[in-house]
Here is the input.
Amino acid sequence: LHFLIGAAPRFRQFYVETLEQAHPPLYFFLLRLLIPFSVNEVWLRMPSVIAGAALIALVFFWIRSAFGPAAGIAAAAAVAVNGFLIDLSAQVRGYALLHAAMAAAFLFQFR
Here is the structure.
């Protein structure tokens, strides 16, 4: 579904299709930028993989600033081995990006 919307031939059609979705449009726009380079499955999963890896670092810095370094390491380790988050980071969906954005919001709120 996300790939089909991102691969729409015309920008207007792409924009109209993003308006019809319940999902926020940022991930569709990221796919729209990546598709001209390659439609390889691994390439299209990269935004989610990068967001999932960034989530680990963001959680570490957020929890470290709130509760100390030991808690930050424990929280980052819990995120790194969480099967649900690993699965979300392997999908061509915007959920990993959403989690990373939420962790960044919490990090900057506690600073």
Observations:
- The chain has a mean pLDDT of 87.
- The longest helix spans residues 41-67.
- The two ends are 38 Å apart (CA to CA).
